[in-house]
Amino acid sequence: MAGKVVISCAITGAIHTPSMSPYLPVTPEEIARQSIEAAEAGAAIIHLHARDPQTGEPTPDPAVFMRFLPVIKQSTDAVLNITTGGGMNMTLDDRLAAPLLAKPEMASLNMGSMNFNISRAGERIKEWKHAWEQPYLARTTGHIFRNTFDDVAGIVQRLGRDHGTRFEFECYDVGHLYNLAHCLDQKIVEPPLFVQTIFGILGGIGAEPRNLMFMRETADRLFGDAYVWSVLAAGRHQMNFTTMAGILGGNVRVGLEDSLYLGKGTLAKSNAEQVAKIRRILEELSLEIATPAEARAILHLKGGDRVGF
Question: What top-level branch of life does the organism fall under (predicted)?
Answer without folding.
Answer: Bacteria
